[in-house]
């Protein structure tokens, strides 16, 4: 690696601290605002130099696609983003297998957010039914593949008859399932047991700033 300037060292430290505090990399605008740099183009220039010199790796098609490569970093893992999930009224998707198909993109998170779990994937949230659980429109939820859930767990549900998907809390109630939004302005959805297929449990959230 080449000798690094003070400004680029500050950018690297900002990247490390942002990852430690939030669990995902900053955007170029985050770096600009956090360090008081004059423009995003200046930030981009320094990031290009840091990548050339082997300190970081960048993924240009991802807004938070910066990975630290220098010693002492927290381990970052790439999680596939498999599509949209509705936090509101259920939204139609092609089939219940669509989330297991080819990823539309990926997101980097620190390993601690995964917690050693297997079968982790991500979904982009559409809608506002889970805002009281601090999950809003445009956020990304980290999911673990599962076909069962405990009472009150937040899960991705496939409604077989409607061929629609939704993100809700799961409550079995006798002969039916209550899918409860975390929004006092919205009513729950009720479904028969045989119409509900659990696709995964929520294990983390990446919030849109």
The CATH fourth-level homologous superfamily of the largest domain: Umud Fragment, subunit A
Quaternary state of this entry equals: single chain
- What is the total tally of β strands? 12
SSE ordering: HHHEEEEEHEEEEEEE
Structure class: alpha+beta
Number of domains: 2
Give the number of helices. Answer: 4
Biggest sheet, open or closed, and with what strands and sense?
10 strands, mixed
Chain-averaged pLDDT? 82
Which percent range fits the helix content?
A: 10-25%
Uncertain segments: none
The percentage of residues in β strands lies in 35-45%
What is the CATH first-level class name of the largest domain? Mainly Beta
CATH topology of the largest domain: Umud Fragment, subunit A
Shape: elongated
Descriptive labels:
209 residues, alpha+beta, Arc Repressor Mutant, subunit A, Umud Fragment, subunit A, 2 domains, ten-stranded mixed sheet, two-stranded antiparallel ribbon, 4 helices, 20% helix, 35% strand, elongated
What would you note in describing this structure?
The chain has 209 residues and is an alpha+beta fold. It folds into two domains: 6-68, Winged helix-like DNA-binding domain superfamily/Winged helix DNA-binding domain (Arc Repressor Mutant, subunit A, Orthogonal Bundle), CATH 1.10.10.10; 76-206, Ribbon (Umud Fragment, subunit A), CATH 2.10.109.10. The protein contains four helices and twelve strands; from the N terminus they run H-H-H-E-E-E-E-E-H-E-E-E-E-E-E-E. Strands 3, 4, 5, 6, 7, 8, 9, 10, 11 and 12 form a ten-stranded mixed β-sheet that branches. The longest helix has 17 residues, at 6-22. The chain is elongated and about 65 Å long. The two termini are 33 Å apart. 28% of the residues are buried.
């Amino acid at each position: 690696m080449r000798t690094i300037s003070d400004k680029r060292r500050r950018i690297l430290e900002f990247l490390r601290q942002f990852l430690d505090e939030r669990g995902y990399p900053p955007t170029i605008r985050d770096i600009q605002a956090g360090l008081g740099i004059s423009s995003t183009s200046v930030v981009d220039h320094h990031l290009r130099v840091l990548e050339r010199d082997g300190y970081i790796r960048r993924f240009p098609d991802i807004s938070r696609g910066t990975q630290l490569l220098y010693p002492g970093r927290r381990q970052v893992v790439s999680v596939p983003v498999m599509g949209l999930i509705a936090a509101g009224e259920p939204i139609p998707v092609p089939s219940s297998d669509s989330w297991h198909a080819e990823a539309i993109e990926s997101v980097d998170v620190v390993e601690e957010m995964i917690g050693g779990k297997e079968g982790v994937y991500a979904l982009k949230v559409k809608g506002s039914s889970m805002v009281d659980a601090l999950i809003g429109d445009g956020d990304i939820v980290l999911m673990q593949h599962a076909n069962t859930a405990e009472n009150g767990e937040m899960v991705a549900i496939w409604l077989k008859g409607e061929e629609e998907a939704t993100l809700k809390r799961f409550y079995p109630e006798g002969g039916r399932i209550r899918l409860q939004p975390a929004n006092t302005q919205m009513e729950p959805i009720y479904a028969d047991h045989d119409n509900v297929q659990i696709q995964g449990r929520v294990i983390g959230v990446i919030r849109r700033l």
